[in-house]
């Protein structure tokens, strides 16, 4: 696995403002010809027969999407210096990389995976194993400026909401900037194999060209599976015997970026809590930081205080202040709103969310009250160069080992059982 070795302040090159205009121009209706109009339309004279008058088909001329081999052969004919497959860990990108590796008229020089800093470690490990199975070198794009870090930005803007602008801004900072920084290590033009498919969603259909090729930031992007449907991708994964991802099977996406922009807080956090408790603990820790930032008046605007919970589902002005330029998205799975937002009731997905219901007089008079109570990352020494997610994961793994030695299935069962200790003061049996 190869990472970026240069210092972020030296090698970072902001890609904003250097891309082709955004393709999101909205739907347009085909024009209807009007007899007698047009700069050089000939006169047809008066009709003397009863034959029906026809002006031809008024349907839009939509080009047919090229098949994988056509796209790859077309890509070969272009001028580029090295070729890499972009693999997020989702099945679209995995299938595209696998198909290209076995069928392209050129060889791949490696695989690129982007560490968003808010993704499941199991996803990165899945990509590492995939690259190893193909015998390809893995390059991890993980260099970004401190101010672009997810954990840094949310203390100013709050968590992202459920709209395209918010999602694009997260994509730019979490994925595109680290990718552009990594690509600077290579000379010339790079061919990047993407897993984007036109049939995945309406948004993707408009973003992916029919020929599967696009030039952006001076590099050539090829989407060989542009014509495939999601079922085509799944069938190919199964037919080729490609190992399945436990993350995709649980979350229905790669899990490489859990920024929360289009997340369903209730459904997704519940799964994360059960399957990857270290990520749940990290999200709760981030919520504690954001809540304290809002309490102390450190948010960009007072209205951002509404964005202190992950996956809040808001679609209002917070995202508009991020000053996002027009960008294309070919790196990540197309996101569609999934009934986001926080419902009413007494159930809460994090302890921080429950604590927000407390009266102000019940909260300690401290600028770091929520962090002190709920931010587990505060226990990590400042001298540590590990990402908090790696430290938390190792800690939860250690708890599971202790629970196993004590006869519990996992640490969650251990905690639940020990929480009942006060009720056993009268001599009740312990597990």
Automatic annotation (TrEMBL):
GO molecular function, one term: catalytic activity
Residues of the Phosphoadenosine phosphosulphate reductase domain: 84-246
Membrane-crossing segments per the record: none
Region (Disordered) location: 23-70
Pfam families linked: PAPS_reduct
Protein name per the record: Phosphoadenosine phosphosulphate reductase domain-containing protein
């Amino acid at each position: 696995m190869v990472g970026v070795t240069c210092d972020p302040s030296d090698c970072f090159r902001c890609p904003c403002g250097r891309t082709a205009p955004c393709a999101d121009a909205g739907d347009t209706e085909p024009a209807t010809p009007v007899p007698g109009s047009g700069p050089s339309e000939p006169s047809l004279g008066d009709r003397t027969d009863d034959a029906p008058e026809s002006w031809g088909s008024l349907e839009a001329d939509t080009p047919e999407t090229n098949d994988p081999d056509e796209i790859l052969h077309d890509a070969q004919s272009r001028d580029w210096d090295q070729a890499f497959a972009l693999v997020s860990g989702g099945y679209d990108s995995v299938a595209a990389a696998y198909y290209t590796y076995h069928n392209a008229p050129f060889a791949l020089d490696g695989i690129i995976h982007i560490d968003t800093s808010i993704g499941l470690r199991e996803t990165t490990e899945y990509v590492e194993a995939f690259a190893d199975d193909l015998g390809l070198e893995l390059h991890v794009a993980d260099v970004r400026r401190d101010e672009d870090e997810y954990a840094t930005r949310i203390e100013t803007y709050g968590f992202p909401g459920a709209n395209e602008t918010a999602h694009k801004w997260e994509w730019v900072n979490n994925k595109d900037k680290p990718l552009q920084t990594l690509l600077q290590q290579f000379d010339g033009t790079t061919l990047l194999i993407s897993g984007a498919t036109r049939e995945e969603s309406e948004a993707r259909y408009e973003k992916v060209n029919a020929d599967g090729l696009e030039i952006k930031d001076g590099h050539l992007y090829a989407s060989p599976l542009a014509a495939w449907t999601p079922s085509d991708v799944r069938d190919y994964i199964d037919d080729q015997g490609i190992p399945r991802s436990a993350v995709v099977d649980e979350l229905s996406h790669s899990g490489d970026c859990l920024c929360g922009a289009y997340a369903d807080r209730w459904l997704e956090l519940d799964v994360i809590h059960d399957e990857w408790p270290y990520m749940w603990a990290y999200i709760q820790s981030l919520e504690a930081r954001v809540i304290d930032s809002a309490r102390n008046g450190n948010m960009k605007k007072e209205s951002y205080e509404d964005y202190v919970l992950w996956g809040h589902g808001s679609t209002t002005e917070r995202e508009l202040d991020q000053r996002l330029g027009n960008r294309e998205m070919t790196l990540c799975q197309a996101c569609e709103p999934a009934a986001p937002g926080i419902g009413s009731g007494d159930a809460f997905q994090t302890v921080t969310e429950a604590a927000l219901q407390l009266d102000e007089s019940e909260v300690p008079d401290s600028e770091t009250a929520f962090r002190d109570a709920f931010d587990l990352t505060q226990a990590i020494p400042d001298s540590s160069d590990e990402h908090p997610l790696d430290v938390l994961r190792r800690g939860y793994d250690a708890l599971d080992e202790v629970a196993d030695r004590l006869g519990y299935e996992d640490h969650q069962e251990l905690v639940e059982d020990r929480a009942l200790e006060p009720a056993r003061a009268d001599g009740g049996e312990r597990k």
